Structure formats: structure tokens, C-alpha cells
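chain below, 147 aa
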Amino acid sequence: MNNEQLAELERLHAAATPGPWRRSKQPYKSGTCKQFEIEAQGRAFWVAKVLCFDRSEIDGVDPQYEANADLIPALHNAFPDLLAYVRELEGELDCVRNVSAKWLTENNAQQRREGAAAHLELMAEWSKNAHLSNEYRAEAKRLREGK
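prediction:
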């Protein structure tokens, strides 16, 4: 995901009804469908509905529809923290790239390049974030290849 995509998600979130959001506890039956309402705290109306139109499911709610109704408010409510975490990881990765660039400009570039790559490999092993580990390994490979 790139910065433009993140910015668009951030714009969409900011334009949406403020939260926190939650789903209705029980589905509401309306004709041939059941629906979960997504509500915003402090609002007298719903902000979205998850509908189930399959007639075979009228007597019971398909767990996937209920899971969808749980996911929508959970993602809306978690989005600011998720975005902050992504930005934090981006900052950490920028720092690693800056350190790598600094080591490459100093004397004995090949030795420093190998040292930086080895350090990045260790960071990849220790990182609890799979995406960040992959980025560390890619940067180490790039350094070893002299790019």
C-alpha cells in the first residue's frame, strides 16, 4: 500500500460519520431479508446496514453476515490506530534506509555495505512484523548487490 492509497483511506474515514460505531445486537427482519444496523455513538440513526436476502437464511443468520456486520464497525473504530502504526513503521524503515545510505558514503564502502546488510538481516529476524521483516531483507539484498 502506498502513501496515496493511505491518504485516500484517511480522507474517506474523516468524511464518514464520527465513531465509535457498533452493530445492532440482533438482526432486524424486514420482509424476505434480515439486516444488521451499524450505528454511530450519539446518533439517532444507522450509518450502514448489512443485509441477508437469501430466503433459506431467514430462520437463521448466516455467520458470515454477522461477521461482516462485526467487521465494518471494528475496522472503522480501529482505523486511526492502524494508520498511526503504519506511519510509525514507515518512519522506522526510513530511518533504516538513512542509516544504510550513511554507511555507504563512508570509507570502505563494501565492508560497511556488508555490515549494514548483516545488521538488517538481524533486524529482520527480530522484527515481529512480517512486512517489515521482508523490507529489511530486501534492503539487505539490495546492499549486498551494490544497488
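The longest strand covers residues 33-40. The beta strands are 21-23, 28-30, 33-40, 46-52.
thats it, cya
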